[in-house]
Amino acid sequence: MPELPEVETICRGIAPHIIGQTINQVLVRQPRLRWPVSKTLAVDLAGLTIRSVTRRAKYLLLVTNGGTLLVHLGMSGSLRLVTTDQEAAKHDHIDILFTDGTVLRYNDPRRFGAVLWTKEVANEHKLLKSLGVEPLSEACNGELLFQLSRNRKVPVKSFIMNSHIVVGVGNIYANEALFMAGLLPTRHAGTLDLDDCQRLIECIKRVLSNAIEQGGTTLRDFVNESGKAGYFQQQLRVYGRKNLPCVTCQQPLQEVRLANRSTVFCCECQK
Fold first, then answer.
1. 53 contacts 61 by C-beta, under 8 angstroms
2. Total domains, the chain
3. Which residue range(s) make up the domain with 76?
4. Which residues are catalytic?
5. Is the per-residue pLDDT at 216 higher than 70?
6. pTM of the predicted structure, to 2 decimals
7. Is there a single domain that holds both residue 67 and residue 111?
8. What's residue 3's pLDDT?
């Protein structure tokens, strides 16, 4: 599924094209997403102007002068910029048409995503208000992670993937950050010392930042705002490399399931 770098890539990609633009029309072809699309969405959005495009966790926030549109891409969703003469495909469920002729098109084959409208302050929305710290923010640091991990017996991988602790650290990037930090994913979070936490946070930031710079990870269902796949996958050191040699010590990488997620690591390099 699209993870934080993919969502951030889309956010940065569409923002210059739609900020300042006024919504002329909204076409909802399929309202049955993870949560039903509001029947009044077209009326609610018509005539509003996009003031900013931001991201909170894996949610895109299209902020207008009348409220905020929350977009979640689910397992297979994408947003693309197209023109009005580009015919909609089978899974193109929603079009937002702007007065300059630009169309923001939401595609979602599995329909696990969401397009929700709110007039309240976005961060007070029930889906956002309990979320943890943004991993790339200054507030996310080793001291915070150390304090939150005290007496926690969950595996450290599950701990950093908990969106109430840190948002947006999905499975791929959790595997990669833990390898970079030299920490076993199965280790209890409460056993981490302050140095471990500082090193882990630095590695999470580095892995996510690198992925954002390179356009996100290439997954079967992900494309960025122009329809081009990202290419961070070629740099993955552990994820998807079960039984292949470790890039550092050449020992075969191991795999376990944590919270029903594939977890690949090196027994020699991670402690």
1. yes
2. 2
3. 4-124
4. 2-3, 58, 261
5. no
6. 0.89
7. yes
8. 85
